[in-house]
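Duplicate of #3305? Posting structure anyway:
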């Protein structure tokens, strides 16, 4: 069967996590900065390293079969690609921001103003939705600098910690959209057995991030309280300890309510609790 091609970002915010995800899926490949294409040694896959802006188009045209890219870029390029899997990294928000001392108070105050952005398509859709007539000034980067230079009254750009806004004298003003990295695919690819195998591996890696492996010791008389707290987990493993009347319980706890669960287990008599990361969960 023909190798699949996956396009990932060459350098930038999504590069490292995309490479790590593929490596965690057990794929062996060289990752030299200078090579823009690499073949996976132990899986029928080639990896293309591209500018993120080009990834949705490559996938839509079938030049690449799959891609890892932010939702903001998918929307901006309006490429016709299928969402295969949300990946949980590259989380950020596209926001409107204004200078700290701006007199803009309401969305309608943007009428007649100039807004700098690298996302003119998404911004225009947003302005249309709120019936705002503003001038969009497209720039390809360092957008946060533009109000200070007198180029724009507001900006529309990606915000994560808010540090870049702050250090450029700006404040967030309105949310335009949230985004995370997505595995996208060409629409003719669905059902492809190589994709099915890759997706199973990706999901097992993503699922593993949501849980911790926990081993605890408990006196046998307290075991029913512990197993009651672990209801929902498929029957925890219980192993006798060398010390008479004690057992070790092995289980998996979700990251979401981890501390709450641990504290309740302690109250119920759990001791010597050991927590380990999980590499993969295969359902
Ligand atoms: N501060 C951030 N925190 C989290 N995710 C971010 C952040 N900034 C950007 N992203 C996400 O990562 C993607 C890539 O961001 P990056 O800044 O590397 O893009 P770029 O400069 O356009 O890169 P390229 O050189 O590939 O065109 C963005 O499209 C967005 O989805
Ligand atoms: O809210 P913050 O945590 O400060 O992050 C936001 C910044 O991150 C991104 O740029 P990046 O640092 O990736 O550089 P780039 O402009 O070269 O893409 C984005 O374009 C913002 O400028
Ligand atoms: Mg880009």
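Output from current build:
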């Amino acid at each position: 069967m023909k190798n699949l091609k996956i396009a990932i970002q060459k350098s930038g915010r999504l590069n490292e996590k995309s490479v790590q995800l593929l490596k965690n899926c057990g794929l062996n490949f060289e990752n030299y900065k200078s090579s823009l294409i690499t073949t996976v040694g132990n899986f029928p896959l080639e990896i293309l390293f591209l500018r993120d802006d080009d990834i949705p188009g490559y996938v839509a045209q079938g030049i690449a079969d799959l891609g890892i890219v932010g939702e903001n870029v998918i929307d901006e390029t309006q490429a016709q690609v299928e969402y295969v899997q949300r990946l949980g990294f590259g989380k950020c928000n596209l926001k409107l921001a204004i200078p700290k001392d701006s007199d803009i108070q309401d969305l309608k105050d943007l009428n007649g103003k100039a807004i700098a952005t690298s996302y003119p398509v998404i911004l225009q859709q947003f302005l249309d939705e709120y019936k705002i007539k503003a001038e969009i000034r497209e720039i390809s980067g360092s957008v946060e600098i533009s109000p200070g230079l007198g180029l724009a009254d507001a900006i529309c750009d990606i915000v994560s910690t808010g540090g870049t806004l702050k250090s450029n004298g700006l404040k967030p003003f309105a949310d335009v959209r949230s985004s995370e990295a997505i595995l996208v695919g060409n629409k003719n690819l669905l059902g492809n057995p190589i994709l099915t195998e890759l997706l199973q591996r990706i999901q097992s890696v993503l699922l593993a991030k949501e849980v911790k492996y926990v081993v605890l010791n408990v006196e046998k008389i307290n075991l029913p309280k512990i197993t009651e707290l672990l209801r929902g987990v498929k029957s925890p493993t219980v192993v006798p300890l060398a010390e008479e009347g004690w057992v070790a319980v092995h289980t998996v706890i979700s990251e979401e309510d981890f501390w709450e669960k641990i504290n309740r287990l302690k109250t119920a008599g759990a001791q010597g609790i050991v927590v380990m990361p999980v590499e993969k969960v295969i359902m």
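Confirmed duplicate; merging threads. Residues 193-209 form the longest helix (17 residues). Residues 9, 12-14, 51-53, 70, 72-73, 90-92, 158, 160, 179 surround adenosine-5'-triphosphate (ligand 1) (CB under 6 Å).
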